[in-house]
Each structure stands twice: as C-alpha cells, then as structure tokens.
Write a structure and sequence with these properties.
InterPro entries: CheY-like_superfamily (IPR011006), Homeodomain-like_sf (IPR009057), HTH_AraC (IPR018060), HTH_AraC-typ_CS (IPR018062), Sig_transdc_resp-reg_receiver (IPR001789), Tscrpt_reg_AraC-type_HTH (IPR020449). By secondary structure, this protein is an alpha/beta fold. The protein is built from 22 helices and eleven strands.
Length: about 525
C-alpha cells in the first residue's frame, strides 16, 4: 500500500476527498491529514509518505512552498495540487515542481481524482523500479568480483548451459561464441611474500582481474578472468573458430601480455598454463578438473608458462620421512650464518626430487616443521603463511618461500640469543619452576614487582607477542620434547604442564604446533 497525505485548511474539503473515491481499491492508504503547511511538514518527518494531495492557497506556508520543501527532502514524492484559482502562473509553478496534476476544486469529480491518482501510482512504480535498478547496478559493481567467483563455482557444478549463459550476461559476461580456451595460473607465493602481506591475496586477485579486463578491451578478445576457491587465476577465452586465425596463438599472446603487466604493476611472478580448445560452456568443468590434476602431477616441473602437457599420473613415494633433512635445517636456523640454511634446503630439494615424494605430504611436513621452529623461536605462527605454503604448485616455489621464512626465523632466533634481557630470563625461569601450575600474567608481574598493566605493555614491546601466546609456546616446546622421548602418555604430559584436561591441552597444542599431540607422537 502507498501512503497518502491530504493537506487543506478547509476541513470540509478534506472530508469530501476522504469519501470521494475508494482509496483502498487503488492500493492507497490515507495515512495522514493536515490543515496547514507547518502541520504537514511535521507529519512528513514522522510518517513515510509516497503521495501528497495539497491545496495551494493556504495561509503562512502555501501549497507551493510546502511541496518545494518536501521535494528537497524526498525528490521521488508524487504531488497532486488542488486550488480554487485558475490563473496560469499557479499551473506553471506546479509543473516546475513536477506535480502529477493540477485540479480545480469547484470542478473536481471522482473520475478526475481517480485518473490523477492512477497516474501518480504509475509514476511511483516507475520511480521505484528505477531506484531498484540503480541499487542493483551499484550492488553489482560493488560485489562483482565475489559474484564472478560464485558464478565460476556454479559453472563447475551446473549442467544447464542456457541458464548459466543467461546469468553470465547479468554480470557482463557475454559468451556469444561456441568455442573456449582455458588457462590456469597462480601467483608465485615467494614473490607475494617479498612484496606484500599474505592477507593481501584477495586484493591482488582483484587487481589482476582489473589488469585482465583492461587487456581484454585493448586486444578486443573475449577473455574473462575468475579466481577459484584456492586463490588461483582462471582465464577463459570465448571465440568463434576462424581458419584464417590461430586462436591458440592469440590466447597465448594474451596470457604472455597479462603475465608481463602483472609483473610490471604488481611486481610479482605468475605461473600460467593453457589447455586445448573445447566446445560449449558445459566443457568448463571437465577442463578445470583436468588442469587441477595436471597441476598436482607437475609439482616437480620447473616451467612457469606454456601449454599443459598430458602427464601420466606419477607414482608418488609415500613411505619416506623428512625428519633427517629437517633436523639439519632446524640446526642451521640456530647457527650464526645463513649458509647452513641454503645448503640444507639444497639437500632437501635433492632428496625429495630423487624420492618423488607426494606433493601434499611434502608441503604438510614442511609446514609442520616450520611451526616447530616458530615455537622454538617464540615467534608467532602466521596462519596465512602456512596456508600459502600448502597451496604452492611447484617445488622451486615452495622452497623459495620456505627459505624466506627460515631467514626471518633465523634472524629472530639470533635476536633472542643475543638480546634476551635479564627480566625475560627471569620469566623463563619462573615458568620452568612452575610448569605444573596454571600461572597468569598477574602472577609474573607480582613476581617481578611490576604493575600488571605496565608489565603487559613491557612484555609485548620486548618480545613482539602477548604473554598468553608466549606462555603457551614455551610450554608446547617442552611438550614436543616430551612427546619425542615417548616416556609419558599425552594425559601425563598435559598434567606435567599444568593442563588439567587433555582436550584443552590438545587444542592448545594443535594451535601452536599445527597437528594434534597424537599425530605428532
């Protein structure tokens, strides 16, 4: 229902208008009446109104002044003027104020009022549709990247090609041709690490999308860039076969240009590999799955660009452990130089290439051991780093990323060994002497004769982490050593370290070590 207000200083006229037609049958509700312009303004601020029917000739604030103010507050408001005057200048002013109609009171009939109201309803409907259309377009622009990502996921699961093509048009994706080419790619994670924060990954994908769109316009090729759930770039080229053109070469040139532009503007390397032509939007899902399988099988390849070569599914070795290699790396991190880290990583690379260790197992094992080094250095875990490491697509890429992280941890370890202040040494001794107790920051502060609030600020300034993280990391490092010795079960270790419940201990252990105590053991 649309809300209407009647405004007239003539009370009998308002009563007459109320009974002149059936308001409800037109979808209108008489929400308010007013006997002056001032009263109408006050009601307007208190009531949601769509239509105002007002007399022009009122004392103090006449109808024209009233509507001028109302239109300033709500431009889409519809107005019908009533008056006893027939002078032209009133009608002209009404037109200037975008009035629906200008009706003479003495000649007013139910048919005239009905016609004016229907016209007002039509204008209100059109205005509402325009507003909804503008809001839809604004939402589309604002959320287009997210909507495109959702659309790509639907392409992988929906078999209805006409439905998907129709939905794509609403997002500005006009795939009007019959054939497609597809490429899959990802940012080189180590180059992300050197230039940005891992939290910036979604922003980088958005920036890459803008670069791809600009390049598509310049090259006049229908290429659409998506990102999948793993944060990878998916380029889809829609084209019509032409014997005079080598479409694969055109797509390859586009991808090379995209790669160079991303490197130029974002300062990052990108892996990009393209497949073979296929027909129909319904072929996107199958080609995407093939590309993902190829990525996994090509983990030990070193190429960063080119056509996807169909490889046989490799026979991964799942029986080897990296404990020996990572023990050497861990010792190297504690050394005074970085040469040992580089040499140990080279030995690790040689070992996994020879053994052809399954990529997922290799990355998970590396992530686990880095967590332990972080724990040893009392360095806060970066979950975004581990997420990026687990998504690496090439061995070289993962090792370069690991190298960057280990150099950072090496520096932190050296800093701790050289600069650890007496108060921090006292804190470590106090925690060690009270391992079986659940001590708090307040306990430590009182032990050091410090105000707890001051101690909290001092501790964060000296260590870079809050006391709770430091405290749990300290205990989890000891827990790792006890689990390796295999003299105690998990319940006993939890009690020795002041954790009364095994489930709570396990949750804390997994948070800081990355795996459960049972899995670590």
């Amino acid at each position: 229902m649309l809300n209407v207000m009647l405004v007239d200083d003539d009370v009998p006229m308002i009563k007459y208008l109320t009974k002149l037609i059936s308001w409800e049958s037109l979808g209108l509700r008489l929400a308010a009446t007013a006997n002056s312009g001032e009263d109408a303004m006050q009601i307007f601020h208190e009531t949601q109104l769509d239509l105002v029917i007002t007399d022009i000739g009122m004392p103090q604030m006449d109808g024209l002044e009233l509507v001028a103010q109302l239109k300033t507050l709500k431009p889409e408001l519809q107005v019908v003027f009533l008056t006893c005057h027939e002078e032209f200048h009133y009608a002209r002013k009404a037109v200037q104020l975008d009035a629906v109609d200008y009706l003479i009171k003495d000649e007013l009939t139910s048919e005239q009022l009905d016609e004016s109201l229907r016209k007002a309803i039509q204008l209100l409907t059109e205005a509402k549709n325009q507003v909804e259309d503008i809001v839809y377009k604004q939402d589309l622009i604002k959320n287009k990247d997210l909507l495109k990502q959702t659309y790509f996921q639907q392409l992988l699961t929906t078999s209805s090609a006409p439905e998907m093509l129709s939905y794509g048009k609403r997002l500005g994706i006009n795939w009007g041709h019959s054939h497609f080419l597809m490429a899959i790619g990802s940012f080189h994670r180590a180059s992300v690490y050197k230039q940005y924060r891992f939290e910036d990954m979604n922003l980088l994908l958005y920036a890459a999308g803008n670069i791809a769109n600009e390049l598509s316009l310049q090259s006049q090729q229908q290429v659409t860039l998506f990102s999948d759930a793993d944060g990878q770039l998916i380029c889809i080229y829609n084209y019509q076969p032409n014997l005079s053109l080598n479409t694969t070469t055109l797509f390859k040139d586009y991808l090379l240009s995209l790669r160079e532009l991303i490197k130029q503007y974002l300062k990052m390397d990108v892996f990009l590999h393209y497949g073979t032509p296929f027909k129909g939007v319904e072929g996107i899902s199958a080609n995407y799955k093939t590309m993902k399988m190829w990525q996994k099988s090509s983990f030990y390849e070193d190429d960063t660009f080119g056509a996807i070569k169909l490889l046989e599914v490799p026979l991964w070795n799942v029986n080897h452990s990296l404990e020996e290699q990572w023990d050497r790396i861990t010792e190297a991190v504690k050394d005074a130089t970085t040469n040992g880290i580089t040499q140990s990583l080279c030995a690790l690379e040689t070992f996994v290439r020879e053994e052809r260790m399954e990529s997922g197992m290799f990355l998970a094992a590396c992530s686990h051991r880095i967590r332990l080094i972080e724990l040893d250095a009392k360095h806060k875990n970066e979950e975004t780093f581990h997420s990026c490491l687990l998504r690496c697509k090439r061995l070289k890429e993962s090792l370069e990323l690991i190298s960057c992280k280990l150099e950072e941890l090496h520096a932190a370890s050296m800093h701790m060994a050289i600069d650890k202040k007496p108060k921090l040494q006292q804190i470590d001794r106090y925690i060690t002497d009270h391992l079986a107790e659940n001590i708090s920051m307040v306990d430590i502060a009182y032990y050091l004769f410090l105000n707890p609030s001051y101690f909290s600020r001092y501790f964060k300034q000296e260590t870079g982490v809050n006391f709770v993280d430091y405290y749990h990391q300290f205990k989890m490092k000891i827990a790792c050593g006890l689990l390796k010795e295999k003299q105690y079960n998990i319940e006993m270790i939890a009690l020795k370290l002041g954790y009364m419940e095994r489930t709570y201990f396990s949750r804390i252990f997994k948070k800081y070590v990355g795996v459960s105590p049972k899995h670590y053991k």
